[in-house]
Amino acid sequence: MHGPISEVIQFIDLNVYTITFLFLVGFIGGLVSGFIGSGGAFVLTPGMMSLGVPGTVAVASNMCHKFPKALVGAIKRYKYGQVDIKLGLIMGLFAEIGVQVGIMLQKYILDKWGEAGSNLYVSVVFVLVLVIVGSFVMRDAIKMKNATGEVEGGTSLAKRLQKIELWPMVTLKTANLRISMWFLVPVALATGMLAATIAVGGFIGVPGLMYIIGATSIVASATELVIAFVMGLGGTLIWAYYGMVDIRLVMIILAGSLFGVQLGAIGTTYVKEYMIKYVMATIMLIVAVSRFFALPKYLNQLQLISWNDTVVGLMTKTSFAIMCLALLVGASIILSSLFKARRLEKMATLNA
Amino acid sequence: MNSERDTFRHTLDEASLTAASAAPDRQKESPFILAITRNGHMSEHVMDYAVNVAHRLGYGILAVHVDTLPFFRDRGKRSKLFAAAMVESAAQFNEKAARMGVTVEHLGEFGKIGSVVNRLCRSKKRIEFIVIDKGIRLEEAARQSPVPVFPVISTKTGHFNKTIFHNPQKKGAFAMSTITKKRHLKNCCLFGALTAGLYTAVFANQDVVMTYFTKGGMFALLPVATVFAVSYFHGNFTSFFWSALGIEASKKSSTQRVAPEPRVTDAVIAPRPDTRPRIQLNAEA
């Protein structure tokens, strides 16, 4: 990406099927993003590629749709008082550095082991991060659900880190905590690196904000939108500089995703805090399963295993289907809990 | 500025004194209707409505004039006029109330409507509901109020014929929610049209757009500017779209709940050390 693009890029023609698909995926992805702070992007890139969009254009267009979506979501959630702008901007800035580091790492792997090696690296990171972080978040969500009190006071790790007075200290008003910059930076860098690798930095960013920094899940997921905005804007400027952004695809996806992101943000005001963790963990674990199915393809290409091509092809398709399923499951949990909570609130006011 | 404030306070004291004869015994804590205005003269409809309802329910009225611009830069002219108007207004209110045998207390306040409402509702008085005058937005008062808020709407002929009701907890077929819904619908249509225009402009000129937008270099600003425009127009459109459908944020989180008052516990008074001189007897038998 850091070199002149010599080959002529093919931009696809649009038809009803493409438009509907992108709109729907945009909507569902937006819904999930508005609710847990990120997500949806991981389906869009492979989705666009399956429509015949070249990989780089798919990645660039995905990036370009991400930051306006995050902006709209962040503004909406700021109105609900959930966003810590200072935290988001600081994290976003360092996440941007993380993205550059991630790209360099990718390049190094690409040079050393070729495309299949790079894909394998991406998939392994995907599976490892998602399984480890996802199961941790899931365990926490279940614990919170079973606990009678709904107090979310941050983990003991976060509390211990907040006690360490290491210059420069940052005071965060909305998140209601004070922590040293030295602990913010690694989380931000990791978020950026993950974003560069699997396109969804939020899978590290949000849990990092919750368990290491000590923000509540509502504030963490809302602040992640600011981080995504900063990262997305930076990334888009670079991609657009090389003329890779297909504005038509971006606008179609945005048409759907802005509907979704508004609804997702509204959803956060109704549900209990553990629901955000629950939805996030569910999506992460299902996506991990999906990436697991994608592994044989790359292992085949590297000639580490030699499976039948049809089997591998089937597994690759299954992988994509499971990925879509992850989004659908997340979206349906969000929608059902939103409407359930709305109904309960209405009944409560009628009885009052 | 302080002296001006004092004069204002002073006039207010006079105003409340005129009503003090009718003021109820505070100890009884009889229920109140809070009539609040930010104008010098409270409108007559509000007075009539408050007096009528208070008469029917046997409540008292707490009439509050809020000077929302106490530091207006005109060397206190506005504050003086406001105070003078308030005295007139208070006298008129007293007259109306006296006819119906309703007690009125007057108060002059400074600051924002929301915080005044919040402060008064938290103080010991039992305020049952609030009537707001022209010029106060419903949301402004309702957001910080633990009790229902009623705006009084008057028609051009001068008679109030409709009192619409807003309970922060309820949203339904009441007039207010219909009005906001209409506004949402209007905004939704406006931004929907703008979004549609933007999309049409881009997709109708696909070829030109794609040539320039993918040129790279400084042309990179074109797609970025376009998506910013999309996020503004389409973002607003989608926001109003869900609002028009009635899907809005939970009232629980957007309405500030009044924190429960801290329980007053009597301080335990430690027995004072006895320092009085005492006679000590050495009884040696």
Q: What's the gyration radius of chain A in Å?
A: 20 Å
How many discrete structural domains of chain A?
1
The number of strands of chain A is 2
Number of self-contained structural domains of chain B: 2
Write the element-wise H/E pattern of chain A from the N-terminal end onward: HHHHHEEHHHHHH
Query: Total strand count of chain B, please?
Result: 6
Largest interface: A-B, 42 and 40 residues
Radius of gyration of chain B: 29 Å
- Our measurement of the CA-to-CA distance between the termini of chain A, rounded to an integer number of angstroms, reads 60 Å
How many distinct helices of chain B? 9
Outline of chain A, from the CA principal axes? Answer: globular
Q: Poorly predicted ranges of chain A (pLDDT <50, ≥5 residues)?
A: 1-7
CATH topology of the largest domain in chain B: Rossmann fold
Question: How would you state the average pLDDT of chain A, rounded?
Answer: 87
Q: What's the arrangement of strands in the largest beta sheet of chain A?
A: 1-2
CATH superfamily of the largest domain in chain B: HUPs
Share of helix of chain B, binned? 40-55%
Largest sheet features of chain B: 6 strands, mixed
Q: Number of helix segments of chain A?
A: 11
- Residue stretches of chain B low in confidence (pLDDT < 50, at least 5 long) are 7-27, 158-176, 254-267
What is the overall shape of chain B? elongated
Structure explained in plain terms:
- The complex is a heterodimer of chains A (352) and B (285).
- Chain A is mainly α and 352 residues long.
- Chain A has one domain.
- In chain A, 78% of the residues lie in helices and 2% in strands.
- A two-stranded antiparallel sheet of chain A has the order 1-2.
- In chain A, strand 1 (169-172) and strand 2 form a beta hairpin.
- The longest helix of chain A is centred in the first third of the chain and has 62 residues, at 85-146.
- Chain A starts with 15 loop residues before the first helix and ends with a helix.
- By secondary structure, chain B is an alpha/beta fold.
- Chain B has two domains: 2-170, HUPs (Rossmann fold, 3-Layer(aba) Sandwich); 176-246.
- Chain B contains nine helices and six strands; from the N terminus they run H-E-H-E-H-E-H-E-H-E-E-H-H-H-H.
- Chain B has helices at residues 2-20, 44-57, 77-100, 113-122, 138-142, 175-204, 206-213, 221-244, 251-254; strands spanning 32-37, 60-67, 104-110, 127-132, 149-154, 160-163.
- Chain B has a six-stranded mixed sheet, with helices on both faces.
- In chain B, helix 5 (138-142) links the parallel strand 4 (127-132) and strand 5.
- The A-B interface holds A 5, 9, 11, 64-65, 67-69, 71-72, 75-76, 80, 233, 236-237, 240-248, 250-251, 254-255, 258-259, 261-263, 266, 269-270, 341-342, 345, 349, 352 and B 169-171, 199, 202-203, 206, 209-210, 213-217, 219-224, 226-228, 230-231, 234-235, 237-239, 241-242, 247-254.
